[in-house]
Inverse folding.
């Protein structure tokens, strides 16, 4: 059995998961499913990059020990990927012991081979990039202090003792390697960029810091901490046993390395296309087969940024759209390797046009006709009219072509073209049904043969399409598969091996809509409302409960079994706006904050709330919140709480996020 080893970058834990992280993982998940379906033994690696100054600082800011801080963010990443139904074989953390061992091993080898030496480094350092920057990565700044092009922040001039990797010695070797392995860097345009950069000459690379403590110590010289990229890049081999037994040792490494496909964003291609093969060659190891750099998601044609307010929030995305719809959009909309534009409007339109009106409609009209005209049993191939027989043959040919085109494009990482091929086939089958009008054929028993021919052809085409699209639409394809009366997992069926006769006589399953149409206006109104709430002065508040179900169906549906209350019931709850005047932790109670809140009454009220793990008390002072003012007072830790503050419970752990207002409100204002 052939192996297929695929990786994503490991994600920094100094920010929360965003669309960029989701995207690469989603692509890797799809490619893994595609390969597995075709009989490969796949291994899909993703994980987190947890060392470096930035992360140390982020933890400091959060007021937590670094390890505790990173553990929390890692859990958030994993939960997020889980909510989007993304699977992986292993999640590496650079703080894992086996990884540290493996990195130290590579370091020793590279050093023993004479490619690491000690020296003095001085340069312009960007804390956000975690590295010294070359001239073309900076812009002139005030007072002769350059600024980082990416982060637009002033740089620090640093000089320190450092170990250096002899990158300059690899210029020729790399160029030879690129020449001999034309598929090493993809796409072609990015390959050319890297080639011209390397031809311009390479400087030695500083690979350790004495100023950074949060990282892997340099073997035999622990006052030095390894430079983040030496540590981070090596994850791709330590995760499969390089330099450690825990992950399978040499046997596993020999089996899986070199990686078949390493997916990265365009911003980190240089590290993967220059440093990474150089480190590997210096350690006597083979570089990966392909590093593919994808483009960036923009939003409304502009870079996503908090200031522009165009960041796609993953919670909002998941709340309104099912994983299959999101996967489909990401893979169809972005030409892999180029930038793409992500807007909710485009996502809705795409889902409605391609999935609801396209595949979903084809599936429901075909299966409904099997129920109506054939009592739910797939007919035996009928002898149709000459014209229909010719058309059916054409349809089969179109499906066969789409099958091979899909594979060809997918193998070339042209996901959007692969999907286009499947869409063209869907349109072809749809046209066949519309042209042949089975509903008319059904009126005349003499035309039974033609009717059966049309329906069987459509069913078989649909079956093939479900198999083709299974890596892209895993849940909906499986649903179609089951509705066709097929057993087992479509994910294991090789599309090209599916014949054109088998299921005649097979009873179909229960027919249910696969992709209900989305109401564009309603979905957009809901999203806007949530976004407004998030941008409220109460901070990054999500006031809508996180109700997205973990399992299908393909489009979000209202939660069943809502227990309605009357307006009179609601009127019993007295909700008032209040201002937090003081806030402090309660000794020996980790979760509790004691606040005094001004509700426009003679005295502020004392209210206790279990939010201490998520809010720093000093930052709460002055904030406007919503209080249940007529809740019977109760005692907590011996203190009376005279009301309750409202917060959304987010995620599985129920993280509280305080509710607030967009506009200023007087203290005590009543909420209705
Ligand atoms: N930790 C490094 C990678 C080390 S790999 C050995 C890192 N982490 S990251 O969290 O900052 O970025 C992870 C990935 O997200 C990168 O591939 C980056 O290109 C990608 N994206 C960040 N923003 C993006 C978009 N707006 N769109 C698509 N991908 C983008 O870099």
């Amino acid at each position: 059995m052939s192996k297929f080893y695929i990786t994503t970058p490991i994600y920094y834990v100094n920010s929360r998961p965003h669309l960029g992280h989701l995207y690469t993982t989603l692509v890797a998940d799809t490619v893994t499913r595609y390969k597995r379906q075709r009989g490969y033994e796949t291994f899909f690696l993703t994980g987190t990059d947890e060392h470096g100054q930035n992360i140390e600082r982020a933890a400091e800011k959060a007021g937590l020990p670094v390890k505790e801080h990173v553990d929390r963010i890692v859990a958030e990443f994993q939960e997020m990927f889980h909510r989007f139904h993304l699977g992986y074989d292993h999640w590496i953390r650079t703080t894992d012991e086996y990884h540290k061992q493996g990195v130290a091993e590579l370091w020793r080898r590279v050093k023993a081979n004479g490619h690491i030496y000690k020296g003095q480094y001085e340069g312009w350092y960007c804390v956000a990039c975690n590295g010294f920057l070359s001239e073309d990565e900076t812009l002139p700044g005030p007072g002769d202090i350059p600024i980082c092009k990416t982060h637009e922040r002033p740089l620090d001039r640093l000089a320190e003792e450092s170990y250096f990797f002899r990158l300059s010695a690899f210029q020729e070797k790399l160029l030879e390697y690129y020449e001999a392995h034309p598929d090493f860097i993809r796409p072609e345009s990015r390959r050319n960029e890297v080639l011209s950069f390397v031809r311009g000459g390479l400087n030695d690379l500083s690979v350790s810091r004495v100023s950074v403590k949060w990282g892997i110590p340099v073997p035999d010289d622990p006052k030095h901490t390894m430079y983040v990229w030496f540590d981070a890049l090596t994850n791709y081999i330590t995760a499969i046993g390089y330099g450690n037994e825990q992950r399978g040792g040499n046997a596993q490494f020999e089996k899986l390395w070199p990686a078949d496909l390493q997916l990265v964003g365009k911003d980190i291609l240089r590290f993967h296309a220059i440093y990474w093969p150089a480190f590997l060659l210096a350690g006597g190891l083979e570089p990966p087969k392909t590093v593919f750099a994808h483009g960036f998601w923009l939003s409304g044609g502009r870079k996503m940024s908090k200031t522009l307010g165009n960041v796609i929030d993953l919670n909002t995305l998941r709340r309104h759209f099912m994983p299959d719809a999101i996967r489909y959009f990401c893979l169809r909309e972005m030409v892999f390797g180029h930038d793409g534009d992500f807007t909710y409007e485009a996502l809705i339109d795409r889902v409605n046009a391609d999935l609801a009106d396209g595949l979903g409609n084809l599936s429901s009209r075909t299966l409904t006709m099997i129920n109506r005209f054939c009592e739910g049993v797939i007919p035996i191939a009928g002898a149709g009219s000459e014209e229909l027989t010719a058309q059916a043959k054409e349809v089969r040919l179109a499906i066969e072509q789409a099958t091979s085109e899909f594979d060809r494009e997918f193998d070339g990482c042209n996901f959007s073209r692969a999907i286009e091929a499947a869409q063209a086939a869907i349109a072809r089958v749809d046209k066949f049904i519309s042209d042949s009008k089975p509903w008319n054929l059904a009126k005349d028993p003499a035309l039974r043969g033609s009717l059966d021919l049309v329906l069987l052809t459509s069913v078989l085409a649909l079956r093939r399409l479900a198999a083709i699209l299974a890596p892209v639409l895993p849940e909906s394809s499986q649903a179609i598969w089951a509705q066709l009366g097929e057993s087992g997992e479509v994910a294991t069926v090789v599309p090209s091996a599916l014949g054109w006769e088998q299921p005649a006589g097979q009873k179909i399953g229960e027919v249910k809509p696969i992709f209900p149409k989305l109401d564009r206006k309603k979905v957009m109104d809901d999203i806007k409302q949530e976004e407004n709430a998030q941008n409220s002065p109460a901070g990054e508040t999500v006031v809508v409960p996180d109700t997205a179900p973990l399992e299908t169906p393909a489009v979000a549906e209202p939660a069943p079994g809502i227990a309605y209350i009357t307006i009179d019931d609601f009127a019993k709850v007295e909700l008032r706006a209040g201002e937090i005047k003081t806030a402090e932790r309660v000794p020996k109670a980790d979760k509790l904050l004691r606040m005094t809140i001004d509700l426009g009454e003679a005295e502020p009220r004392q209210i206790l709330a279990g939010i201490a793990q998520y809010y720093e008390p000093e930052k709460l002072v002055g904030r406007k919140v919503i209080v249940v003012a007529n809740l019977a007072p109760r005692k907590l830790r011996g203190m009376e709480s005279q009301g309750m503050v409202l917060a959304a419970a987010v995620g599985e752990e129920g993280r509280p996020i305080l509710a607030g207002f967009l506009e200023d409100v007087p203290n005590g204002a009543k909420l209705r």
In short: The first strand starts at residue 3 and ends at 12.
